[in-house]
Amino acid sequence: xxxxxxxxxxxxxxxxxxxxxxxxxxxxxxxxxxxxxxxxxxxxxxxxxxxxxxxxxxxxxxxxxxxxxxxxxxxxxxxxxxxxxxxxxxxxxxxxxxxxxxxxxxxxxxxxxxxxxxxxxxxxxxxxxxxxxxxxx
Length: 137
Prior knowledge:
By secondary structure, the chain is of the alpha+beta class. The protein has a single domain, classed as Nuclear Transport Factor 2, Chain: A (Roll), CATH 3.10.450. It is 28% helix and 37% strand.
C-alpha cells in the first residue's frame, strides 16, 4: 500500500465531519482518529483554546452531555486543501422540549489528513438562549 493511499483513506474531509455529526458517538476510539495529537480548538465564549487531542475530545464529550441529542447537518463547504470551511445547522431539543436549530461555521485546518486546528464560529449566547442551558466547556 502506498503512502498516498493511506493518507487519502485517513484524510479528514467534510464527509468525515458530516458522518460524525449525523450521529455523534465518542465511545468509539476511531472517532478521535482524524484529530491530531496537538490539535488546538477555539470555541466561542471560552477564554482559552482547547489544546491536545484528549482535551479536545473531552470538550466534545462535555458538549454532548449538555446537549445529548445534538446533531449538525452540513449546509455548505469550501476546501482549499488545507483549510476546510463548513457551514452547519445544529439540531437539538431545548430545555422545554422544543426543537432548536442554529447555524454556525467551523474553519478546520487539516495537515497530513489530520485536524490540527478548529475555529468554531456561532452566536453562543443565542444558541444557549434557544436551548435554555449553558454550553460552557
